[in-house]
């Protein structure tokens, strides 16, 4: 007797389980793609143009560009005017051409949940004798805030134009590539005297890997152009515009192999007989892939083998894995099954899968215009074997009731309950013939 479909009764604690086989083609090919990130020490985080030297400039003063930073009218000082002990250039936060006295930049490679520390030097200064005694005496106030952190106020050393080395600001990022923003809080006095910044650096302590995220609800795909957020479709279309527009890089600490939740495969067999049943059972085990572009942005480029985004993903993944990426798998097996009298038998599969977290990065683009697209993909793994379990156990109450039910039989409407009147040994017309 068979019963098809998934049954909630199959998780009964009285059941027993025996692992039967690893599916074809999924033998252990190497170590897991990446161990869980312990993230116990800080790492250096790139700050683009943290010394404020790009683009090249030959005179202290106003300019319309500052590579890597978002600022309306940067006002930089040459090393000779900045008087930094390391001979560095400096950035003045104040500017007479705008009311926005801020500069900002996204810290690339930093993940949401990371503890970030920004280190920098500050001083009071400007061109020549721009600073009055009052401005020097009181120091110059400014603020610094990172995405997810509180806005902290700093003041350059009162009564001094010396550089204060290694000030720090720490915050916990609430988004990938958090934005840090310096802004002058000085509203009085000559505009060309204010807080000077130099030597901006950053470190972070990455968050632990979250392996509780289901493959059906991957993190939202997100994209940036320079320091600005953009629509994921715009970034995907840009990368797909040419074979080499973007390069995919795996974020190794956040990419890993794992075993998915077990699921029932095929039918459940109930042995309602009084004898042991032994037979061969065909089992088909399948697996598919998921990606955050398809789930959150309705962009079906990654699984499309003819799409440039697909090719960039495969090239980048191949650099981090000894086995190629799998989009789908189908495996047919035949299992010899033995079922004792009064027992149920069913098959469960537990797929070996892998999660890949990474970035598509635009090639040959200036930092202020560089396209970056963050995606997460999840697919069948060639690095760990799938598991198949033959499971047997006693009937549930409903199954026992079904096995005790009467077999189908036609009705006997005439004298159905009367005793037999004789035998059929006599000939036609005898007493034993109706």
Automatic annotation (TrEMBL):
Instruction: Look up the domain of life of the source.
Output: Bacteria
Signal peptide stretch: 1-34
Query: Does the keyword section mention Kinase?
Result: no
Q: Has UniProt tagged this entry with the keyword Signal? A: yes
Task: Please list the residue ranges that the record marks as compositionally biased, kind Polar residues.
Answer: 142-159
Which keywords does the record carry? Answer: Signal
Region span, Disordered = 141-163, 395-434
What protein name applies here?
A: Secreted protein
| Source organism (scientific name) | Streptomyces albospinus
């Amino acid at each position: 007797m068979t019963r098809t479909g998934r049954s909630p009764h199959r998780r009964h604690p009285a059941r027993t389980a025996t692992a039967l086989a690893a599916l074809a083609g999924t033998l252990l090919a190497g170590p897991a793609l990446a161990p869980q990130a312990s993230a116990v020490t800080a790492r250096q985080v790139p700050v683009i143009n943290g010394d404020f030297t790009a683009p090249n400039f030959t005179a202290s003063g106003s300019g319309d560009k500052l590579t890597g930073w978002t600022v309306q009218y940067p006002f930089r000082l040459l090393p000779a005017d900045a008087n930094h002990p390391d001979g560095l250039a400096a950035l003045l936060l104040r500017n007479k051409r705008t009311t926005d006295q801020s500069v900002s930049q996204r810290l690339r490679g930093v993940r949401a949940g990371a503890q970030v520390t920004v280190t920098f030097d500050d001083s009071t200064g400007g061109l020549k004798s721009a600073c009055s005694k009052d401005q020097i005496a009181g120091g110059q106030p400014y603020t610094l805030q990172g995405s997810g952190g509180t806005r902290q106020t700093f003041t350059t050393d009162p009564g001094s134009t010396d550089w204060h080395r290694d000030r720090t600001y720490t915050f916990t990022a609430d988004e990938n590539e958090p934005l840090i923003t310096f802004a002058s809080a000085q509203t009085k006095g000559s505009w060309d005297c204010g807080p000077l910044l130099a030597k901006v650096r950053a470190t972070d302590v990455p968050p632990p890997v979250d392996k509780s995220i289901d493959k059906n609800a991957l993190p939202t795909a997100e994209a940036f152009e320079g320091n600005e957020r953009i629509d994921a479709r715009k970034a995907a279309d840009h990368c797909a515009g040419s074979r080499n527009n973007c390069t995919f890089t795996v974020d190794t600490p956040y990419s890993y192999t794992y075993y998915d939740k077990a699921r029932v495969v095929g039918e459940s067999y109930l042995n309602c007989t009084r004898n042991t049943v032994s037979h061969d059972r065909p089992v088909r085990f399948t697996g598919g892939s998921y990606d955050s572009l398809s789930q959150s942005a309705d962009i079906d480029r990654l699984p499309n083998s003819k799409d440039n985004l697909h090719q960039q993903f495969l090239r980048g993944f191949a650099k981090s894995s000894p086995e190629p990426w799998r989009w789908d798998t189908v495996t047919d097996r035949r299992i010899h099954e033995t079922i004792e009298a009064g027992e149920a038998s069913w098959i469960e599969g537990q797929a070996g899968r892998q999660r890949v977290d990474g970035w598509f990065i635009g090639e040959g683009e200036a930092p202020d215009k560089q396209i970056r697209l963050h995606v997460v993909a999840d697919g069948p793994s060639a690095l760990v074997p799938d598991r198949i379990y033959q499971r047997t156990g006693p009937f549930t109450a409903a199954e026992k009731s079904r096995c005790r039910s009467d077999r189908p039989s036609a009705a006997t409407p005439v004298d159905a309950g009367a005793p037999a009147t004789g035998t059929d040994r006599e000939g036609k017309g005898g007493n034993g013939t109706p």
